[in-house]
Amino acid sequence: MLPKSSNDKNINFRQGAGPLFAASFLFSGAHNGVFTLALPFVIVLIGGSDKDLGLCYGLGTIAYVISCLTAGRHLDRFNPKRLLQVSSALITLAMVAVTLVTHLAANDSLSLFPIIMVTVFNAILSLLLTLYWPPMMGWLSRGHEGPALSRRMSRFNLCWSSAQAICPFAAGFILRHSPILAVLTAAVLSAIAFLCVSIAASPRIASGSKKQTSPRLPEPATMLHPSNAAFCTMTRSALFVSCVVLGLMRTQFALLFTDTLGYSKALFGILTGLLCLSAVAGFFVTGKTHRWHHRLLPFAAAQVITAVGLILILGCRSLTALCIAMVLIGVGQSFIYASHQYYAVSGQKDRSKPMAVHEILISAGYACGAIGGGYLAEYFNRFTPYQFALAAVSAALLAQAVIFGLYKKSAARRSA
Predict the structure, then answer these.
(1) Which domains does the chain have, with CATH numbers?
(2) Does pLDDT of 206 surpass 50?
(3) What separation in angstroms does the CA of 119 have from each of 67, 102, 125?
């Protein structure tokens, strides 16, 4: 058998998921791994407060929620490759704009509401995310069900989450020199992600032959686990609350860690990377086994360890305790994220719409965590937001117990 030529390998890479996995890694590193990490210090650099930071993040996530609500149902009508190209290109330009505004404001060359300008550009960037992540997930999950779907999405989750684990380590050291340089780095990574999407074969091209046509999905009623709807509802509440926690970790924890507790920005980058590295480990486990599918104990345990992480932050006795808290929250968040992702798309023919709902829940949680955390920190103290988050996790667990109890009663009546 003759070895495959480099041209054949390039064609296989383009027509497979390789370019999309690479794009998800680079774009996640750009936005969540670097840009989001740098934004608190950008706001401080141009004279903003805790409340300004919360509003900047919160308004951005609200913009994303509105965009998902209005555009999410229509995304399946368009070529996902074109949507990814347009969104990544415009997001790169928005990051460049934030770089310029911050540079001018830091050098006293711009006095015309720099905080408002950064907030507006961040909101525009957030609006454009609707054209990126839901089509990306819908494209990747097309034609896959059951364990194959779980493995496919696990690889995707490993790509974007590993970027969030790696990039904060580098971003923390870049932030020591300049938040402006960190935002510029994010813009470069986003531009490379655009190039990766551009070399991917279009879905229409890739499905042009019978061999490459996505298999027809079975009817949902014949393939779904009886408890799938109940788990989908429960994971929605869990995903929302876990993202409230992450909204705090992405915004208010930066100021608590560096200003209140006196640790360095570089060390903050390391802890953020540790949280994301823990999420990578969680995604790896969820992809390796499907034994957690439709089981209550692992799902509840993920939320309990998130609550334990919040308790450790509230105690805040040592750096070691904070590191353990990052690990617990990262592992819990990854399992909750993967759970909803799996239950939401199982049996669905149009995948972008449920993934838009997935992104809405994430963004709504981020908004509540960022805005609520900002106001609580501003008017009470910087530990109060974590008490609020702990109460939210407890309320979600209680609501899920009620939902699962109703499902069990309904299942018992049907079997009687």
Answers:
(1) 13-202+222-415 (1.20.1250.20)
(2) no
(3) 16, 11, 10
